[in-house]
Fold this protein.
Amino acid sequence: MSPEEFESYFQQRATRFASFYKSEPVSRMLGRGALFDRLRFAVDTAVALPAKAVLDVGCGSGPLFAPLAGHGIHVTGIDPAAAMVALASEQASVYPGLVDVEQRGWEELTEVDAYDMAVALGVFDYLDEPTDLLSRMARAARHVVGSFPSHGVRTSLRRYRYGRRGVAVRGYAVSDFDRMAAEADLRVIDRVALGHAGYVVHFGRNEPPAGG
């Protein structure tokens, strides 16, 4: 999926995607509880590190802002879709000095060691070259958290439904995470299954040997 197609798709559906985070009970009733499970995993990981600065790639409407800022963590959210950035900026305005929002795609991510953790939730679903994003996030932060849909009926249905709009959706196997980690000079620290929705994975940089 090209950056232009990705931006166009989420530009048109910004409000709909933002609505998924308005009510956890309703989202769980609709089978979207994994959205909140992966959100909590990312926040818990950031707090446990502890992270002081987090990069939120494909931040959407900013559902990570409140829980991270509530722990005093500075968040930089980036998203290519102007409509998403507008929604995210509204959320960011509640936390002056703690949350910044920028309109740019992950292809423009060139920072090195600028954050303690980089997060991408609901982004790897649509990438032709996921290791490229993982590598960029690994340069920007020592720790990376990403969500990945698994192969199966759920992803197949999404692939059919989104494909009708020209949007490709990919699935991942558990074996993909170690391979992608190795290619990005990372290791898998933790992996949690999100039911039939897939996985959320915590990667960390490979550390040099002590005294090396």
Remarks:
- The first strand starts at residue 53 and ends at 57.
- The chain has one domain: 3-205.
